[in-house]
């Protein structure tokens, strides 16, 4: 038995043999074990011979059965070939019989068709005779339940009558036509009644009969008319239309053989009657009296109509449903879209002007004319070259004449105009129309509002020698900067998508660039003049507060102050202006303006210090003042400005240093690169300069 292991088998055999091992103290008997092995081997040999004989017998039996099976298979193959031959013969016989039957059928049909036509012709002649005699006796004409058979007959008679000469058969042709018309009316009436009862199968049956009549289109018209009864009861005619078309779409295929034509006719009727009337009522009411409401209604109605068209695209309306629906929309709105952009521009212009005027009225401000022409252009060029105020300064009382609310209103109006333009403009006119709207925005926001505020702000900047001048131009800069960010955002978000792939893109970008450059020139000019005014204010403070005795006190040993009053006031003023500049600007502009102010501030202090003579204690006070100015300069956070004041502080050391150390101080790190004349000019400010000892040491 499997699995067979020889070693285990021998072990088991030895274990079972008495004396085959030391089991239970029994002595090992090799002879007995050998004898047992020999006997067992003989038994195994006998068993092997017996099994071998059995295997040979089974092999012989298997070979015999295989031969018998092969013989049987050969016999079956022969039988199959015979059967296949019989099948082919039967198939050929069937084909032959079928050919004969088809031929016989053709012959019978050839005989039967003329016979049927003859029978039908006979019947039609019989019915024609009744019309000829003027009395309809046949049951098919008198029995109302056989209206379909009567319709078939009268339709054929009507076709025949049309071929007959009028002079001989005018009366009978008239009677047939009259009956044709009566039956047509009856069928349409039946269709109408079935539709009201909701009997779809009856409607389908009658529609199939009417299909060959001239009044079939009238049947469709009746169906379309009755479909709409009670369908438009809500305020939303567009939603009602969508629901109606969806319901009819499910039903029309069960009734008519050409459902797509019927559905298309229904949609055409809805557009040309319901929607066109609704649109006209909504738009004509405001067309001449209220441009804002007219544009809002036009945009809303056109959007809802196109949305309805998108829903109807799901239905089968024939081959080119996109063109079909587009023509329907165009037929409704063409008279309104032709002059849309003129209405839009006119409204935008009047609305923007009103927003601006309302703002200036709220400020009790009469907008002054900036003016154009030769003299104004000359003034502008002179002002740009000299940076001098031309004409009297205007007191704006701190008003910037810039309003974020006004800007938001203008941008909102323009945004809505861009949206309407995108929806209502023809694709070929879209970039051109968008550019016109953008031009309106530039005119009223940039020119009439921002540019006017800049001009007014420039005119309001006092001269540099004015005392206690209020400087509001930085507020104008701050607001103009904020406003222009909003303008730029609308340009990118709403205008760019409309013109990005058209030649108008470069024109819009150039127009934007020009207006930016124009504003930057005026902003730069105003900032420059404002900085001049700041320096002028510092000059007034220094002139009023700085005394000659500050740096040459009468009692050198009794000086109690750390720095002069003029220094305190100037530093306080400068810190306020630095904070104001930081609040008014952003980005690199802050550093640029602060650097310019810092340089001018340094030049002012440098020149101011050159006006005085300094005793030893006065020089110490000057160093203290400059140290305070340097601390103030740190607020600028500009390396150049701080370096200038560091150098100035080092120069002030020349006012107090001992004569023997002058050369050493002048050759120090901060002063070594300065011009000798500058160093000399500071040494000359010392009250002891004329002493021979000091002059000798500095020479």
A few lines on this structure:
The protein is mostly helical and 699 residues long. 75% of the residues lie in helices and 0% in strands.
Strand fraction equals under 5%
Any idea what the CATH architecture of one domain is? Up-down Bundle
Q: What is the mean pLDDT?
A: 83
As a percent range, the share of helical residues equals over 70%
CATH topology of one domain: Methane Monooxygenase Hydroxylase, Chain G, domain 1
- What's the CATH first level of one domain? Mainly Alpha
| Total of helices | 24
Instruction: Report the principal-axis shape.
Output: flat
The profile of the biggest β sheet is: none
Using the CA coordinates, give the radius of gyration. Answer: 57 Å
InterPro entries: Sec10-like, Sec10_HB, Sec10_N
GO cellular component, one term: exocyst
Protein name: Exocyst complex component 5
Pfam families: Sec10_HB, Sec10_N
Care to describe what's here?
The chain has 699 residues and is mainly alpha-helical. Among the domains are: 8-132, no CATH class; 398-538; 551-697, Up-down Bundle (Methane Monooxygenase Hydroxylase, Chain G, domain 1), CATH 1.20.58. Helices cover 75% and strands 0% of the residues. It has helices at residues 6-16, 30-133, 139-142, 147-163, 166-197, 200-210, 216-227, 237-255, 259-284, 291-312, 321-337, 340-362, 374-386, 404-424, 430-460, 473-499, 504-545, 565-584, 588-609, 616-634, 639-652, 662-666, 676-683, 692-698. Mean pLDDT is 83; it is low at 372-385 and 387-392.
